[in-house]
Amino acid sequence: MIVKAYSDLNTPERILMGPGPSMVSSRVLRAMAHPLLGHLDPKFIELMKEVQELLRYTFQTENQMTLPISGTGSAGMEATLANLLEPSA
User: Fold this and answer.
1) What is d(CA 50, CA 68) in angstroms, rounded to the nearest whole number?
2) How do residues 14-25 score in pLDDT, each as one tens digit?
3) How far is it, in rounded angstroms, from Cα 35 to Cα 5?
């Protein structure tokens, strides 16, 4: 059996101007290269608190239930509507 060697992924830089995917700054790419943390790791909890503080500042709220939730744009719109619309009686 012949085993083919593959090189590392080396994508060229492009200027992306469509609706997505979008450009990512080099700072974000460096942050993404760090090792992952588990959700119970004390450092993760520290980082989550910092992100919550920044979100509260961004959205000008003091609500302690301000949470970042990953998802698609559609998931974000659904979460927004679910929080704004009252259920019918």
Assistant:
1) 11
2) 888 877 778 888
3) 26
